[in-house]
């Protein structure tokens, strides 16, 4: 199991909301976690050592050196963020995500919100929400609902987000995956922004991220310019087959 090194008593985390995601499509899971933590002025309270290999990376950020896997916390509202700067190796997906779910159970997390990107190729042409979601047994049992429809039959989730969801179900922790439609191979700031708005509704606090909004606007303008240069503003044909569309 991974080891959680915390600078605050674990008892303080009881009843908190957990927010996390990974570096999947559009970098949505990672960036949504990061911008949400910044919006709530969460402070770094610890880090995580994986069971086997620690990714050899260190990133200097505003609050100092950033480790591959870190824990942030804020009391208003009571929220824990697991910031996954690194993507666990495939053989680490199961032990790492089981450790996250076990930690959530041990400290008494009341709700887990997982974030990831959903390929835009599967977005219905008349969609007005910009995302889909998946709620586990305990989220739905407590009456949890979001505005958009749940993910359609035949689609699915792969990678550590899926194994984390499964372990959270095992530990009977109410959980929901938020999946904004996103570009697959590029960072999608607009998808992250949509996800942030959904997260605001879930936790009941408006999350403001001016830098993210500016990045999303710049990216939109650039994409429109590229579309004009290519002679067409139309997107590529949308796929309709089922399959796994989050990784």
Secondary structure topology:
Blueprint: E1 3-6, E2 17-21, H1 28-39, E3 43-49, E4 59-61, E5 64-66, E6 69-75, E7 78-84, H2 93-107, E8 111-115, E9 118-119, E10 131-135, H3 137-141, E11 155-157, H4 160-170, E12 175-182, H5 189-203, H6 210-229, E13 243-246
Parallel strand pairs: 2-7, 2-8, 8-12, 9-12, 11-13
Antiparallel strand pairs: 1-3, 3-6, 4-5, 6-7, 10-12
Helix pairs in contact: 1-5, 2-4, 5-6
Give a nutshell description of this structure:
This protein is of the alpha/beta class. Helix content is 32%, strand content 26%.
Structural features:
two-stranded antiparallel ribbon, Rossmann fold, alpha/beta, globular, 13 strands
Shape-level CATH architecture = 3-Layer(aba) Sandwich
Share of residues in helices: 25-40%
Radius of gyration, taken over Cα atoms and rounded to an integer in Å:
18 Å
Number of strands: 13
CATH superfamily: PAC-like subunit
Number of contiguous helices: 6
Give the biggest beta sheet.
9 strands, mixed
Mean pLDDT: 91
Distance between the termini: 23 Å
| Protein structure class | alpha/beta
What is the CATH domain class?
Alpha Beta
- The outline comes out as globular
Counted up, domains total: 1
